[in-house]
Amino acid sequence: MDPVALPYAVSKKLVENARIRHDWAAMYIAIKGDDKEYFVDIKDFEMQFEEFGGFDGLYMRMLASGIPTSIEIMWIPFSDLDIHQQFLLITGLSQQCLNALWSSRIVSYTREWLLEKIKNINDDLMMMIVFPLVELIIPFPVRMKLGMAWPEFTDQTVGSTWYLTWQSQAEMSFNPGRRTNSSGIYGFLLEVLYMDMRCFIYSGF
Question: What is the Cα–Cα distance from 4 to 48, expressed in whole angstroms?
Answer without folding.
Answer: 8
